[in-house]
Design a protein that fits this description.
Helices cover 47% and strands 16% of the residues. By secondary structure, it is an alpha+beta fold. The strands form three sheets. The protein has a five-stranded mixed sheet with strand order 7-6-5-8-9. Helix 1 runs parallel beside helix 4, helix 2 runs antiparallel to helix 4 and helix 3 runs antiparallel to helix 4.
Length: 259
Amino acid sequence: MTLDHATYCDQILRQSEELRSHLAGADLTAAVPTCPDWTLRQLAVHVGGAQRWATEIVRTEAVAPFSPDKVPGAGGPEGDDPAALDAWLAEGAENCAALLREVGPDRPVWSWTGPATSAFWARRMTHETLVHRADAAGAVGAAYTVPAEVGADTLDEWLDVLTFPRVFRSDDTKLGAPGHSLHLHAKDTGAQWFIELDDTAFTWRRAEAGTHEKATVALHGPLADVLRVFYRRLPLDTPTVEILGDGAVLDTWLTATSF
């Protein structure tokens, strides 16, 4: 399932605005627990730089990869002024969303999964921002909520990404054992996913609402928390989620599919 192009463009702005709200008044030199090599400022520069990179890919109708370092302004504003960083983040998100709205979803462009269209980058930047917003929220102790449709599509997109093993993992990374399966259930929205594993491959599908398919391990909880556990932004022993069955199967999956 994917959302319509206009929704992604709107969400790039909305998720960026919420990210900026988490950063407002925060110590930007503070470490980000879920991205331990980054400070909050470095996290913000990563998100803003990624949005500018995607904008340049779509603007130039790129047919081959190029380094984000070659994108003007992608390294963030000079100096440590929080107001300058906030303005830089706002500008990047606004330019990204505006260009994607202007060109529509069908402009052919390069992506790291192969030939794609501008729709790929609208979706990718929505979820790139939404997930890193979870990092920022966790670092500053802010509440983290996601719209139901958007959060569900974040999980869909991550599973889509993982079907391209060379993107984030090697072809022989062990995901589990043949016959093992995972069931994700967002109990507040009813959305469910069923993932069937081989040793180095998997298939997935949205499970029928109201069904209770038996899996080797199940992860239940509110959508925002299931999403964060699945992205390794919350630990497996988070009180708001419940793991039923063989937790080692989920742990193996999460280890194999982390960035």
